[in-house]
């Protein structure tokens, strides 16, 4: 089976503006996913309300997808993939150097 290339998850995004490259790939399907799994998404800190906007966080969403991977035959996130996603998202939260070269 060929290896599938996957775009990295963004740090965060509004549920109302769901990225096309993030499963389930459509805003209408994402709304259903959020309604059906709200408690688990909140528990994993993948979902948060900011004012009237629901925000999805990439690290928590990656953990949610990993927790659901047993339900999909042939889907394997793997520890290495999850660890790489967490590292990339952590760097986006403040681990990146600023333009002056100092840590943010």
Structure description:
With 104 residues, this protein is of the alpha+beta class. Helix content is 43%, strand content 12%. The chain is built from four helices and three strands; from the N terminus they run E-H-H-E-E-H-H. It has a three-stranded antiparallel sheet with strand order 1-3-2. The longest helix has 18 residues, at 78-95. It is globular.
Itemize the secondary structure elements and their pairings.
Blueprint: E1 12-14, H1 27-36, H2 38-43, E2 47-50, E3 53-57, H3 58-68, H4 78-95
Antiparallel strand pairs: 1-3, 2-3
Helix count equals 4
How much beta, percentage-wise?
A: 5-15%
Anisotropy-based shape: globular
Please estimate the helix content.
40-55%
Largest sheet: 3 strands, antiparallel
Order of helices and strands: EHHEEHH
Alpha-carbon distance between the termini?
Answer: 41 Å
Name the poorly predicted regions: 96-104
Based on secondary structure, the structural category is alpha+beta
Task: Give the assembly state of these chains.
Answer: single chain
Please tally the β strands and state the result.
3
Describe the strand arrangement of the main beta sheet, using strand numbers: 1-3-2
Rg estimate, integer Å: 15 Å
Entry summary:
With 104 residues, this protein is of the alpha+beta class.
Keywords, please?
3-stranded antiparallel beta sheet, about 45% helix, about 100 residues, alpha+beta, disordered C terminus
């Amino acid at each position: 089976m060929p290896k599938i290339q996957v775009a990295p998850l963004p740090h965060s995004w509004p549920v109302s503006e769901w990225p096309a490259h993030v499963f389930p790939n459509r805003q209408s399907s994402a709304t259903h996913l959020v309604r059906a799994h709200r408690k688990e998404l909140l528990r994993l800190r993948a979902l948060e309300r900011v004012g009237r906007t629901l925000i999805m966080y990439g690290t928590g969403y990656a953990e949610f997808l990993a927790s659901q991977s047993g339900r999909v035959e042939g889907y394997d996130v793997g520890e290495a993939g999850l660890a790489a996603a967490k590292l990339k998202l952590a760097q986006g939260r403040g681990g990146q150097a600023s333009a002056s070269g100092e840590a943010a």
